[in-house]
Amino acid sequence: MGEVRDDAAQISGELVELRQAIHADPEIGLDLPRTQEKVLAAIDGLPLEVTTGRALSSVTAVLRGTRPGETVLLRGDMDALPVTEATGLPYASRNDGVMHACGHDLHTAMLAGAARLLAARRGELAGNVIFMFQPGEESYAGAERMISEGVLDAAGSRPVAAFGLHVASGLLPLGMLTSRDGTMMASADTMEVTVQGHGGHGSQPHRAADPIPAACEIVTALQTLVTRRFDVFDPVVITVGSFHAGTASNVIPDQAQFSTTMRSFSAGTRTVMQEAAYRLVHDIASAHGLSATVDFVDSYPVTVNDAAEVTFAERTVGELFGGERFVRTPFPITGSEDFSYVLNEVPGAFIMLGACPPDADPATAPFNHSADAVFDDAVLADGATLLAELALRRLAG
After folding, report:
1. Is the CATH number of domain 4-185+302-396 3.40.630.10?
2. What is the DSSP string of 185-215?
3. Which residues contact 237 (CB under 8 A, 6 or more apart)?
4. What pLDDT is stored for residue 2 in this prediction?
5. How is residue 234 annotated by DSSP?
6. Cα separation of 390 and 161, whole Å?
7. CA distances for 340 relative to 156, 160, 163, 262, 335, angstroms
8. CATH no. for 187-300
9. 379, 184 Cβ separation under 8 angstroms
10. Which helix (H) or strand (E) holds 350?
11. Residue 120 and residue 110: Cα distance in Å, rounded?
């Protein structure tokens, strides 16, 4: 039997076919029946214990090595985004308003490839591997739902380590990998605010209770809150992305509503941010003689890598591809990721993989979530190799 990397190169064409088939037929959210069908076909015939989700179109596959040992989990997310593709690729999305703009189609193909590579090496495997094919990463908390359905216990023993890869269409050169100890990605929460006033004629504001100035003051004060209440080395980001009030220039409305995204890099700061924002909204509204309601919609927790697992992954990359292929990112990423739910339960590492086409400049190439984002299939074999080797070596260690 050849080296894992050699075998991955042999199946790279099939991985490209799978990735492009998924890309051309993207699905959103938790219900991905056609994507699930493609995954099941790709792993059919392998010596895996396969189960599908009850409340979502997940696929959980367990590979049991011929020797007893611990368990490692490998994850790939499968869902797309509500984006109209503008790449012009021959395998571009056929589904209106839906696109694999974040590279999850590559993640799925790489995980299917890892399953094939590891299934061929059951004799070398001391323990079990859980392959977690997950829907609903994009704002649906699919990882949390899979955990509630038992993915972490699928092999009978909880994983001792978990690994996930995420491709990037920009920023990183093709084939480069990066990660870091501790906080890798931010938490994300939404705050919905309604300032309640009393409408009236625009020419007589003293006879009304105008919610718009109070809401505008709150928006500005939230930015001051960021700079005056939080350590610059444990930062937060608050962005008001939606603001709605009124129907006409001469009508004072009853309500002003806005929504924010709130990002933080530690669990403690996340709690303080919510408490401080809640108090600020109510106090400013009260100072104007108005009332306000505040609703928090928790999204994803902070994604926290285990230092030992990052070091292990860095060493593995160096031995497979050369030390120059791995760099430690000095700062966390301000995006969020629901692999955080897995890493809250299992020590592991989330690793970014550059998939920027070689003829594009990573500094200016359209990034993930863009309608123009293009991911190079050349990374598929290396991604499958790395996932498989992380499992083999971690269980051997």
Report:
1. yes
2. E-EEEEEEEEEE-B-EETT-GGGSB-HHHHH
3. 186, 226, 261, 262, 263, 264, 334
4. 63
5. S
6. 10
7. 22, 16, 11, 16, 12
8. 3.30.70.360
9. no
10. strand 348-354
11. 16
| DSSP string covering 50-104 | EEE-SSS--EEEEEE-SEEEEEEEEEEE---BS----S--TT---STT-B--SSH
Q: Which residues pair with 328 in a beta bridge?
A: 179
What are the backbone angles phi and psi of residue 174, rounded to the nearest 5°?
Answer: -55, 125
Q: What does the alpha-carbon distance between residue 31 and residue 338 come to, in Å, rounded to a whole number?
A: 17
- Closest by alpha carbon to 236, among 217, 198, 196, 264? 264
pLDDT in tens, 95-136: 999 999 999 999 999 999 999 999 999 999 999 999 999 999
**100 and 25 Cβ atoms separated by less than 8 Å:** no
What φ, ψ does residue 44 adopt, rounded to 5°? -60, 135
CA distance 232 to 255: 34
**Residue 272: is it exposed, middle or buried by C-beta count within 10 angstroms (0-12/13-18/19+)?**
middle
- Domain range list for the chain: 4-185+302-396, 187-300
For 241, half-sphere exposure in the C-beta direction (CA atoms, 13 angstrom radius) is: 10
What is the rounded CA–CA span in Å between residue 176 and residue 183?
Answer: 20
Q: Are 162 and 359 in contact (CB under 8 A)?
A: no
CA atoms of 273 and 192, how far apart (whole Å):
14
pTM of the full structure: 0.93
